[in-house]
Amino acid sequence: MNCQCVVAVAALGLALSGCATVIEGADQTLRVTTPPVVGAECIISGPTGSYHVTTPASVTIPRTQRDLHVECDKVGYEPAWATVQSHFNGATLGNVLAGGLIGVGVDATTGANYTFPTNIPLPMDPMKGPPAPALTPTVAAETTAKPMS
Question: pLDDT tens-digit profile of 20-29?
Fold first, then answer.
């Protein structure tokens, strides 16, 4: 290989290093829904912090290797929760071919080599259990007072 070819390959490698970081970004926007309910209060927890949203909602969070935990509540409905798994992002494979270890290191540092599902639906069901007892008015029994003998 001549010197120009080596320089061109090195320049291409540096340009593509951090490929997932450049293509996918270090943050990801997730959409949380609670069908058929609107207005559920949800907390998304992960290693980068907690995020409070009211459904339907979109939230942008940093990408990370660790999973997220989502909990949603609304009065009159059973709570809904899910663990949202982080998956290895295929864009990082481009670094192995083009960017080498520098690109893989950049993606690992930024978390860009992982991704979450974009849509997180958490179906909510109405509260279960026996119906509340109906309130009925109490009628006082009439009594006739009798003198004591």
Answer: 444 557 899 9
